[in-house]
Design a protein that fits this description.
elongated, Multidrug-efflux Transporter Regulator, Chain: A, Domain 2, mainly alpha, single chain
C-alpha cells in the first residue's frame, strides 16, 4: 500500500509564488521571439521567405542547429546567423 505524504505550506507562501509567476508572465508576454533570441519554424520561414519544408531540409541535410521543446522546433538567432554566414562566405 502506498503511503501518502503531506506538506503544509502557509497561504502567504503560495500567494507569493503566484504573484511571482504573474510578474514573470507580464514581463515576458510582450516580448516577441526575435527579442528573446529564438525563432519558431513558422516565424523563421516567414523571415527568410522560404517554406517550412525547406527549413526542415536545412536541418536534416545541412546541419542547421535547432532545439525542440514539447515537439516544437526553435532556432537560436546565433545558430541561424552562423549557419547562413557559412553560405555567404563560400559564395564570395
Amino acid at each position: 500500500m502506498n503511503k501518502l505524504n503531506y506538506t503544509l505550506i502557509e497561504e502567504s507562501s503560495i500567494e507569493d509564488l503566484v504573484n511571482t509567476i504573474n510578474e514573470l508572465k507580464e514581463r515576458f508576454s510582450d516580448r516577441d521571439e526575435e527579442s528573446l533570441g529564438w525563432y519558431s519554424t513558422k516565424t523563421l520561414a516567414e523571415k527568410l521567405n522560404i517554406s517550412e519544408r525547406t527549413l526542415f531540409k536545412y536541418r536534416k541535410h545541412y546541419g542547421l542547429k535547432h532545439s525542440q521543446v514539447n515537439g516544437k522546433v526553435f532556432y537560436s538567432k546565433e545558430d541561424v546567423d552562423e549557419f547562413f554566414k557559412g553560405f555567404y562566405s563560400k559564395a564570395v
